[in-house]
Amino acid sequence: MSLVNIGLVDDHPIVLAGLSELVGELQNKRVLATGTCAEDALAMAERGGLRLIVMDLNMKGPVLETIGRIAALPNAPAVLVFSASEKVEDCCAALSRGASGYVIKGSSESELFQAIDIILEGREYISPSLAVRVFRQTQARDKKQDVVLSFREDQIVNQLLNGASNRDIATRLRLSEKTIKYYMTQIMQKLDAKNRLEVALAVQRDRMERQPAKV
């Protein structure tokens, strides 16, 4: 099995060294590049060859802008933010720019490894304690006009809620991955969502609100 190349970016030398050692010990994974600032993250993404970049949020340079620029690259590596910040707004800002996950630095090694595996499968991940707060904040937003999804869009959303990647959905529905991406774009526009995670949160919130009140 081929190695999965990962880039690490953090401006704390001890954290960077520790991450390099931990990730380097994972099966079928290799730390191909390291850096200490937003500029380093963009440079390693542009060089290519990486499947994932794990990067801090609070370091030199326009980090959020850099996440967006990385996400816009052809064959862009996924971005996992590994940050000490537990602010909901920081998490949402990173995800809205194109990050695939957000893990708090106080998390366990196993959680970080789980997040890496999930993101490499094409899914999204947020540290559970933070995910609950993100979900609650989403629930607290002003309720918008009901959105009606087509039969096919509803099929795709159901697969998404089960953790399926675009490739998995395409296989299960016997459609091309390109078609699934088209439908996903339409769904995000309808739900005013910036990424797959926001789609899932919006749908879950809507379904909860539609449930009849228990007597």
Automatic annotation (TrEMBL):
UniProt protein name: Response regulator transcription factor
Domain of life: Bacteria
A Pfam family assignment: GerE
CDD domains cross-referenced by the UniProt entry: LuxR_C_like (cd06170), REC_NarL-like (cd17535)
Occurrences of domain Response regulatory (ranges): 5-120
Domain called HTH luxR-type: residue spans: 142-207
Residues recorded with modification 4-aspartylphosphate: D56
Naturally occurring in which organism (per UniProt): Cereibacter changlensis
InterPro entries cross-referenced by the UniProt entry: CheY-like_superfamily, NreC/VraR/RcsB-like_REC, Sig_transdc_resp-reg_C-effctor, Sig_transdc_resp-reg_receiver, Tscrpt_reg_LuxR_C, WalR-like
GO biological-process terms attached to the record: phosphorelay signal transduction system; regulation of DNA-templated transcription
Alphabetical list of Gene3D superfamilies matching this protein: 3.40.50.2300
PANTHER family referenced in this protein's UniProt entry, alphabetically: TWO-COMPONENT RESPONSE REGULATOR (PTHR43214)
